[in-house]
Amino acid sequence: MKSINKFLLLMIMTVLLVGNAWGAGEKEGASSGPVVLDFVNWATAEEQTRIRVEGLIAKFEAENPGIKINSITSGFSDILNQLTVMQNAGDAPDIAQAAGVNVSALYMMGALEPVDKLFSQELQDDFFDSMYDLLVYDGKHYGVPWGGASFGFQYNRDLMIQAGLDPNNPPKTFVEFQNAVRKARKALPESVVIMGLDTSMRVFGFEHNYPFLLAADADPFLQKPLRFDTPAIKAYLEWLREAARGNYTLANKKLGEFRPIAAQGRLLFMFDQQHIKGTVKSLNPALTDEEFNRLWGVVTMPANAAGIQQTTSADHQLVVFKDSPHKKEAAKFVEFLVNSDYAIEKYIKVMGMTPTKSGIKRFPEYLTDPILSGFINDVIPSVVPVPYGQDFSELALIFMSGVQDAMTGNKSIDEITSDMQAKVERIR
User: Fold this and answer.
1) 265-276 confidence digits (pLDDT tens)
2) Model pTM score
3) All domains of the chain, ordered by start, with CATH?
4) Which residues fall within 8 angstroms of residue 47, CB to CB, at 6 or more apart?
């Protein structure tokens, strides 16, 4: 009996040793294969950009045979939810495309790796400070800009002349802008939209309004505690009510809904990003580069009472996750996406976004194109952060509900701001 027990014990030990050796062999074999990086992005969700990004991935993999990219597609509006689910399930990706409020939310849930030590100081110095510093939280950077997409102030020169305005002297202050809008509305046909401001019920709607809130000295986030019923905010809502009732703009419209109007030559002022030329030309194929450059000018947003010009940016950004076991390889892929000649030529430049400072020098058309150079020289230096943080999305939607009430409803502005403030106090 004892000999049988010894035999069984010997067999069990043999099986365990073989199993461990097999497992070790599997692990060693896996580690000797290519590193696989999970890359969650919305770029591959859209046909126009999917082919380009897949081309970037193929190029990177060809140059780095030890790294494979697993591209995981998510819609722009869904990406934060998807990343949150993955993070909470312990299945966070290595890298993700992000923008604005997404980075803030991921930072607050502790999902992101600071990038200050992942990239060389040379690369970090190559980013525009105003773009890179949008990603600072508690003194550290939690991502890098993939391509600049700042909001500039564009104006149609022909319509300015028709309105009796000087096309060589666009409005420089918020008060000048208000007066120019009123004057233009009186002079131009009703078919012309004077200004293309996004007032939709979206967080993006607030982000698009934020440069004008700064210009009107009506930033609601300056108040401690937060208040949505200040005299400055009431004045801003009165202005939007005047804009809707006076037919200066189209209420409750998204930014993208003004672009076809611009392509038809029926929009005087628009507040769009670097890619606007390509977008408008795609909507009006008869419009050449030369004609667009002649027709449209770009400067930064109007200044506030102190003469300070400020705007915001909806840059495409890239983040690395704290739980990634391959941060070195992730950083290599990110650097390829943001600063390689191939990525700049095939993606960033084609999309009308702004690359690194050295990328601009390597592609001089950024400085010879009057629209892109206007963004680089005037708009990007004036970029400031949107005050993302706790409850931001909810607060932004409260504000935009007040905007919509002001533009389309009949309640007094005092009633609207009182309702807004009550909602704020329920969540703060």
Assistant:
1) 999 999 999 889
2) 0.86
3) 35-142+316-352 (3.40.190.10), 153-312+387-427 (3.40.190.10)
4) none
